[in-house]
Design brief:
Blueprint (H helix, E strand, L loop, with lengths): L7 H12 L3 H14 L14 H10 L6 E8 L2 E7 L5 E9 L2 E5 L3 E3 L8 H5 L1 E4 L2 H13 L7 E4 L9 H11 L12 E5 L3 H10 L5 E5 L5 H7 L8 H9 L9 E7 L7 H11 L4 E7 L13 H13 L3 E4 L19
Parallel strand pairs: 4-7, 7-8, 8-9, 9-10, 10-11, 11-12
Antiparallel strand pairs: 1-2, 2-3, 3-4, 5-6
């Protein structure tokens, strides 16, 4: 019984089918595992009158979040390496923010999108993660690293929409009130722009879940050079998918734009980007390029970042400048995968 792959309803169903038990015991077990990291079923108050059941259940319970084999720190930022049951490794990043911690999750070992500025893309795709391996990253952050987690971003290794069903089930599990209890509005899924995934997410109507899109260029030629996915999912097709996406009035898309000196950072690039965004409700995260072996371009200067940002702002775009963090431990945007 792999509890890290189960919603509360799923666990309740298994206990009812296998033991004739129901929500009372399922809720208690779910609470202890997800909220306290407790594996001692017999010691749970709700199980004290059913010790035989508890001992039997303990033998069947499987909690396999993967093993944290290393961790690297830059101030309060932590990148940790998880070794999976087959020996493959993934990287996750715990990012401290004012009053909250954000955990950057991986959804695949490697990635087949092939973005030139991304270390994970250079690995190719080794395999998709299982639900328990995605949930296991949160489990390890809370109960191995002893860190509180409020926000989740699927911006680690892999393209989340290339492992769509597994990622969606993981989100349902982390959203369980008797479990991790992470609100959908605190979860962001980032995509390179797979339009089919955007459309599928829209049909699920997961109110509050945030959608981020890695754009990185204002024209198809540059974007196709940076991101081969653009050959199949052009900027025009991407915008059409976003225009059809069921946002509420108060919601917006998150656009990620990695600024690269001499490639996508000109004044005309900023104007074209603003024209592309209009009239979509967008908050744009402007991110300086992080060094990636084999991609021979440079990061912009701080002045370049400010100039590009000011042009976008003058065109009515809401811009957040993301100054580089985690670069010294290869935990910055585009750098995950070096130890895998």
């Amino acid at each position: 019984m792999k509890i890290l792959e189960l919603t509360l309803d799923g666990l309740t169903g298994l206990l009812k089918k296998g033991f004739g038990k129901g929500l009372f015991h399922a809720s208690a077990l779910y609470r202890e595992v997800y909220q306290r990291g407790n594996r001692d079923i017999a010691g749970i108050p709700e199980f004290k009158a059913s010790q035989t059941f508890a001992k039997t259940l303990e033998k069947q319970l499987i909690i396999e979040p993967g093993q944290v084999v290393d961790a690297f720190r830059e101030n309060d930022l932590i990148k940790f390496i998880t070794q999976l049951s087959d020996g493959l490794k993934i990287e996750s990043v715990l990012i401290p923010m004012t009053g909250r911690n954000t955990l950057c999750l991986s959804s695949q070992v490697g990635c087949r999108m092939g973005c030139r500025f991304c270390e994970t893309g250079r690995m190719g795709l080794k395999r998709n993660l299982f639900v328990s391996e995605i949930i296991g990253q949160i489990f390890n952050a809370r109960f191995v690293l002893k860190e509180k987690i409020k926000n989740i971003v699927f911006m680690g290794m892999g393209e989340p929409f290339d492992n769509f069903d597994t990622v969606m089930e993981s989100i349902r599990i982390m959203n369980e009130q008797k479990g991790f209890d992470i609100a959908l509005r605190h979860i962001t899924v980032s995509t390179t722009g797979l339009t089919g995934g955007i459309e599928a997410l829209g049909r699920l109507k997961m109110k509050g879940l945030r959608l981020a899109v890695s754009v990185n260029a204002p024209d198809d030629k540059t974007r196709s050079f940076l991101m081969p996915v653009n050959h199949a999912h052009s900027l025009q097709a991407l915008k059409a998918a976003l225009e059809a996406f069921p946002l509420t009035r108060r919601e917006c898309f998150l656009f990620e734009y990695i600024l690269i000196k001499g490639l996508n950072d000109s004044g005309s690039d900023a104007i074209k980007l603003a024209e592309y965004i209009y009239p979509l409700p967008v908050r744009l995260n402007l991110i300086p390029l992080n060094p990636v072996k084999g991609f021979n371009y440079e990061s912009p200067s701080d002045d370049d970042m400010l100039r590009f940002s000011e042009i976008l702002t003058s065109q009515g775009v809401f811009v957040v400048k993301r100054w580089s963090r985690g670069r010294s431990v290869a935990a910055g945007c585009g750098q995950l995968g070096l130890t895998c």
